[in-house]
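Quick log. Single chain, no ligands specified.
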Amino acid sequence: MRKTVFWSAQGLALLALMLGTGCDDSSPSGTPGDATVDAGPDGGRDSGPTGPCLEDGDCADSQYCDIEDGAFSGTCRDGCREGSCPTGQECGDDRVCRTPPCAGDAECPTGQYCDPASQACIPGCRENDPADCPPVGEDGRAQACNPTTRVCETLTICCGDTGCEEVHGAGACGGEVLMGALSCQPDPCGTPCPGGDADCGDNQFCNDDGRCQDGCREEAGACPPGQTCDPTLHACLEQPCVGNEDCPNYQFCDGEAGGVCGDGCQGSDDCGDGEICERGECILRCMDDGDCGNGQYCDVDQQACRDNCDSHDDCEDNEACDFGTNRCVIGACRDDVTEPGDSVADGAIVIDLGAADADGFRAGEASGTLCGADSDFFTVRLNQGERLRVRLFFDEQENLDVRLSGPAVGDEPITAAGFDVPEQIVFPEPGVVNNAVDYTIEVFGAGGRGTMYRVEVTVAPAEAPCFPDPLEQDDRYQDATGINANLERYEQRLLSLCPRRDVDWFRVPMQLNDGLRVEVVTAADEAPIAIALFSRRRVEGAAGGGPNYDMVQAENRAGRVAYVLDIPANEGAFTDEDWFIRIQSTNPDGVPDYDLTVLHTGDRECQDDGYEPNDGVRTGTDLDTLPGVGMGGQVPYSDDGIEVPGPAADPLFICTFNDDYYCLDLDAGDGLEAWAVGDGVAGELAIRIVDDRGQAQGAAGTLTGAAEATDPARFRGAPAGR
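-> predicted structure:
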C-alpha cells in the first residue's frame, strides 16, 4: 500500500509543511517508546552485509568478496571490485583504484592533457580542442592553446611584411602589434593613418591602433539629420537629449525633433559676427521689425527675427500666439482660435445640431479653451416642444461652470456650478412645451493659464420620455456594456433609466474568488433602484432563471441615495465566466439621472505556488526527490520533522477549495506525521494522510499558527509502499 500527504484549505497562504517519520512504537521488535534505527554515516539506512560471501554483490559497495583457491565461500574485505572505481580509473590486482597511463590527449578528460614524461593526465588545455580553449574569447579576440605552457592565451595580431598573422605574445611579432578595437576585425591590418582621420577614406576613421577603420567620424555632417556619431561604436545613432550638454559640441538638442541631437549651434558663440543662435541655427540679429523680412517680426528679447504665428503650435511651449498681433507672447494663455467670443455681442459660436436621428434626437458639440476669468458663449436653436440637455466636460483638476439663458428661461439663467464632471443642465421639465427659440450657453470659471473643455448639446423631441445616455442600446443582456476585467474601478455618471421599464445591462468577467460591489446613486426623491447579478449560464438558461444575487442595501449620502449590492472577495461566490449586472427602476416613470460605480476585486491575495499542478494523488509533489527534503531518493527519519521548502524560496500557497498533494515512500512499520503552519490569514486547513487510492489513513490534523502547538495528521504501522 502507498501513502500520501495532502491538505485542503479555504483562502489560505501556507508558510511551511513539516514532515516527521519514525518507527512505529507498536512494532513487534523493540521497546515501546524506545524505537531506534541503525543509520549509516550519511544518515541513511545500513549499507549491507559484512560477513561471509559467495560473490562481490554479497558485500558492501566499498568491499569485494575474497575467495581463496578451492574455497566454496569467501570473506568481504575492503577494496575495489570491477565497475566500482570512479570514471577514468581501473581496479588493480591489489584492489586499489588507479588511473591508467595515457598515450595521448584524447584519453584525458576535458581540462587535462597527457604529459609525455609521466604518461599521466594533468591540468592544462589540449591543442585544437575548442572545449578547452574556444577559438574566440569573451572579449571577442582570437585565442588558442599554447603548446608549451598549455594555457589558453589571447593571440596577438601582428602586421608584418608578409601580411597579418596571429602569434602567441608580442615578442613573437616581427612587425606592428595591434591591441585596439581593430584587432577584432576580419582584416585588421589596414591603411596606416599617422595624420588622423584625414588619412582615411570616406566613411572611415583613424582608430586607436593608427589604422583606418570603417565607421563615422566625430564631426558635423558625418551622420544623417537627427543622428550623432557614437564615439565608441563609430556608428550613426539617434542620441536622445534633454539639453545641449547631452550633445557633442558640434550639435544641439533639437526639442522639435523629439529631443535628439542634431547638427547646429548650441549658442551664439558658435555663430559669426552679427549673428545669434536661434533653435540651432545662426541668424542675423535684429533691433526692430524693420530688420526682418515680410511675415516676420523682431523678438527684441532674443534680438532675433521670428515668423508670424497663426496658431499656438508656432510658438515655444511657454508661449501663446496673440491672434491680434500674430506674435508669440511668453506666459500668455493659449486661448482658442474662436476668440474673442467673450460675450453675445462679440459673436457667440453657433453649435450645429444636425439632422434628427430615427428617434428624433439631435446633437452637436463644441470645444474651446478658457483663459483666466474669460467666458465663452455658444448659441443653439430649438424647435417647438423640444427639450435641451447641456453637458460640460473638462479636466477634473480644474473648475469650470456653465449657464443657460434665453427668453424661455426667464430673467435668471440656469447655472450648473458644482464640482462634478460633467456639469449638466436639462431644460425645460418634461411636459413643458416652449415655442421655437434660441438659447445661449456660457462657459465660465477660473481657467488659469488655459483650461480645455468640451460642450455637448442633446435635443429631445417633445414626445421623448427622457434623454438617452451614451451607453444605449444596452436594454438586453446580449447588448450589455462590457467592463474590462483588469479595471478595479469602473465609473459612469449621469446615466438614465427612461420610463416604460428601461433596463441597463453591464457585463464583467469574474473568477471564483473575485469580489464585486455595485453602487447606484440617485436623487433622494427618485424611485428605488433594483440591482441584480446573473451568471451567464443562469441568464441564458432555457427558463430564464432568476438572479444569483439581488440583495441591495440603501445608504443616505449627503441628500442622495446609494443602492449597493456587495459580494466580498475570497468567498467562492462566482464561477469563472461572464457575469451580468442588471439595473432597473422599481417605478415605471424611470430615473432621469443616476451615477454608477463598479468595484471589481480579484483574488489577488491567493496565488498558486510553483508546485502546481499537484492537485491529485498522481500529480503530487515527490518529497523523496525534493531538494532539502529527500536524501538518497527517500525522506530520512527525523524526530523533529523536516520543513518542506517553497518553490524557488517562495512560500507555499493554497487557495480556496484547492487540494495540494505531497508524496513519499514508507517502509513497513514506519510512522508518519504531517502538520502545517499558517500565516494568520482567515480560513481553515485540514491535513490528511491517504493511500494511492485516495483513502484516508490514520488521524487528520488541522492548521496551526506559528506560535501555537502543532496539530499533526498521524499514521502508525504503515505497510511498505508509497
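The longest helix spans residues 344-347.
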